[in-house]
Design a protein that fits this description.
With 497 residues, the protein is an alpha/beta fold. 35% of the residues lie in helices and 21% in strands. Strand 9 (262-272), helix 9 (292-306) and strand 10 form a beta-alpha-beta unit.
């Protein structure tokens, strides 16, 4: 999808479709009122006839209006509210795309940026529009013999009455396109089947990204390398699989060599059967999404590097396949992590923390400014926060607040959960330094408590995306690409503020 910027009188701009909002006040305002005067009152006449009332999401397509260069004018209702919420605004954009993508127009001029949205300036409204439109046009059909029809809509032009707004709109498009490119990559990797997207495949994807962008470096640690480093926890997860584990590093140097890098660590379990602690068969197909943390950090890396942000960024992907076999790790086994801490594995289905803890120890060598891990870690997070909000925990309040603020800015929200010392006691083991589960209570928090044992050397936060990384069940099942917008915004804020 191509995006562009235009300003000036909207009736003079040639386009396949001019998109204009009207509210439920029954008195036209803004661009709608201006166009109504140009075309001899045909918009207000449509309102008076009851063809459209301005109810949120209601649409009316008009053709060949006099005095207007656009071939079509799409009226879309914005409702009664004096200010829209992010959700309201997204819904209007989604409805607009649904009407236009298979219609006759190949390009559209959008004036919806003039709508007031709570807490958003022109830049953030425009960027949210770009990301929402791109999200609505995403398709994953590479394994279907009959491909979906390509949308006819190829170009969207963001309109502003004032030429002085052009720079803000252009920046919004650049940022929105980069974030959407990263989100699309994350969604596609998440949607790939487990027999394709293996740890080896993720390593190849990382190498392809490094080849695509200058100023990047890639390194892939094999199992023998991890053995030499003492990563007994990570390797315990891949012990039952024919697929070898990988620890993948991608680095980008956009700032000076002395600038501390921000490190993102992604959980990359490319398929999770639960191991010997086998999951129920129903819905197990969705365990291909257990690598969405890895997919997320690759998507964020692509967004940051394509924008050439003046920042140093390193991503680490701890990737393995969790399978049951004669060589698989058993409940009750004790392994030694890279940190030297011993772990009693009470449940082999709590494997994400086992791969992450060694990657988090490995992250120390980069002397990071911050470390954020991203993982589809616990079903308990879905119970606590549902499918709308990412769980956020960590050892540094400032970092947690920065991530929460970035989530609000990007409309990719997180919510904080506590890491009080009392929860740590649930991980006590009579046989090892730590157990890998803490019982049925507060499962999301005790999982983060486990990770916190390996992050004492730096500022650290943990994002549990088990509820937000994909949509379950039915024809709408698929990866969401979250939290690429949140994390990219967090890194943009490090540069801008």
């Amino acid at each position: 999808m191509e995006f562009n910027v235009k300003h000036g009188a909207p009736e003079t701009i040639k386009t396949g479709c001019l998109v204009v909002s009207i509210n439920e006040a029954r008195t036209l305002t803004g661009t709608a009122a201006h166009l109504d005067s140009v075309c001899g009152g045909q918009l207000s006449a449509a309102v008076k006839r009851g063809d459209i009332t301005g109810k949120s999401g209601q649409t009316l397509m008009l053709f060949a209006l006099p005095g207007i260069s656009a071939q079509r004018v799409l009226l879309i209702g914005s409702g009664k509210k004096p200010e829209l919420s992010d959700r309201d605004y997204r819904k209007l954009l989604q409805k607009t795309v649904a009407i236009l993508k298979d219609g006759g127009a190949t390009d559209a001029l959008l004036t919806l940026g003039e709508l007031p949205v709570q807490g958003r300036d022109l830049y953030s409204r425009a960027r949210l529009a770009v990301e929402t439109i791109r999200e609505s046009l995403y398709q994953f059909d590479q394994y279907k013999s009959k491909k979906a029809d390509k949308p006819r809509l190829k170009k969207c032009v963001l309109w502003s009455a004032d030429k002085a707004d052009a720079n803000a709109l252009k920046q919004a498009i650049a940022h929105g396109q980069a974030i959407s490119d990263g989100t699309d990559l994350t969604r596609t990797l998440g949607n790939l089947p487990g027999n394709v997207c293996t740890p080896t495949y993720l390593a190849k994807e990382a190498k392809a990204l490094a080849k695509q962008f200058k100023g990047t470096e890639v390194e892939v640690l094999e199992e023998k390398d991890m053995q030499a480093l003492g990563m007994g926890s990570l390797l315990s997860v891949s012990a039952g699989s024919a697929e070898p584990a990988k620890l993948i590093r991608l680095s980008y140097q956009g700032a000076g060599a002395k600038a501390q890098p921000h490190v993102l660590v992604g959980k990359g379990i490319t398929f999770d059967t639960g191991g010997i602690s086998l999951k129920p068969g129903s819905g197990m197909d969705e365990m291909k999404y257990d690598m969405c943390g890895a997919a997320t950090v690759l998507g964020v890396f692509k967004a940051v590097v394509s924008l050439q942000l003046p920042i140093n960024l390193t991503i680490l992907i701890a990737s393995a396949e969790n399978m049951p076999s004669g060589t698989a790790t058993k409940p009750g086994d004790i392994v030694t992590s890279m940190s030297g801490q011993t772990i009693e594995i009470l449940n082999t289905d709590a494997e994400g923390r086992l791969v992450l803890c060694d990657a988090l120890t490995y992250a120390e060598r980069f002397k990071p400014a911050s470390v954020v891990d991203i993982a589809t870690l616990t079903g308990a997070c879905v119970v606590a926060l549902g499918a709308h909000t990412t769980g956020v925990m960590g050892n540094n309040d400032e970092l947690i607040d920065q991530l929460l603020d970035a989530g609000k800015q990007a409309d990719d929200r997180g919510w904080p959960l506590p890491l009080f010392d009392e929860y740590q006691e649930q991980l006590d083991s009579p046989f090892a330094d730590i157990a890998n589960i803490g019982g049925p209570k507060a499962g999301t928090i005790t999982a983060a408590c486990f990770l916190s044992r390996f992050t004492k050397a730096y500022r650290w936060a943990h994002l549990d995306i088990a509820g937000t990384a994909w949509t379950s069940g039915g024809k709408d099942k698929g990866a969401t690409g979250r939290p690429v917008p949140l994390l990219t915004q967090y890194l943009l804020n490090q540069v801008q503020g």
